[in-house]
Write a structure and sequence with these properties.
This is Nudix hydrolase domain-containing protein. It comes from Candidatus Staskawiczbacteria bacterium RIFCSPHIGHO2_02_FULL_42_22. The longest helix has 17 residues. This protein is an alpha+beta fold and 182 residues long. It starts with 13 loop residues before the first helix and ends with a helix. The protein has two domains: 35 residues; 130 residues, Nucleoside Triphosphate Pyrophosphohydrolase. Strand 4 and strand 5 form a beta hairpin. Strands 1, 2, 3, 4, 5 and 6 form a six-stranded mixed sheet that branches. The protein contains four helices and six strands.
Length: 182
């Protein structure tokens, strides 16, 4: 990174580094726009220092032709910094100043590509060992409108090998159980 004034970080004490970080974060906060986000690099750096709350949309439907339940998954880009090339449930961090409904509007527009007709909070998932930091997820059972979106429907008993392990082994099975009871 290039700075207009050279700062030799190696010569700063731990407290001086913290003070510099506070000054920089205050400067960033003044011009922060939740609609634009903070960028992946800054988000990943901050995520290591705090708990990040993420609503996740588990979109399930019953396929009567096959008598099976399907889940809607999104494929991450190969250049994504988190889980590149893996299928995952739609979800996103709550940005400062946002309500949870704002996150779902972003998910509809940017990740799902289909309108969410309904959502119901079912449970939370605490993941303090996520590689990017400590993530606390609010898991919602969602119903999508018909149409083509950005993702793909999969039978819950035949998920792609490259599905996020936590989604495959914890979240999707719990939500299928909930779906069957509703």
């Amino acid at each position: 990174m290039n700075f207009p004034h050279d700062i030799d970080i190696s010569k700063l004490s731990g407290q001086e580094i913290k003070n510099l970080a506070v000054l920089l974060l205050k400067k960033i906060a003044k011009s922060y726009d939740p609609k634009k986000g903070m960028g992946v690099e800054l988000f990943n750096a901050i995520a290591k220092l705090k708990v990040t709350m993420t609503p996740e949309a588990v979109c399930l439907r019953y396929n009567s032709q096959n008598d099976k339940i399907e889940v809607y998954l999104i494929l991450r880009s190969l250049t994504d910094t988190a889980y590149p090339g893996q299928w995952h449930l739609p979800g996103s961090a709550v940005r400062p100043g946002e309500e949870i409904d704002d996150v779902f509007l972003r998910l509809e527009k940017n990740e799902i590509g289909i309108r969410i007709l309904s959502k119901k909070f079912v449970f939370h998932s605490n993941n303090p060992t996520e590689p990017r930091g400590h993530f606390f997820s609010l898991i919602f059972l969602c119903v999508l409108d018909s149409g083509d979106g950005y993702g793909k429907w999969f039978f819950v008993d035949d998920l792609p090998e490259n599905t996020l392990m936590r989604h495959r082994s914890v979240i999707i099975p719990a939500m299928v159980k909930e779906f069957m009871q509703s």
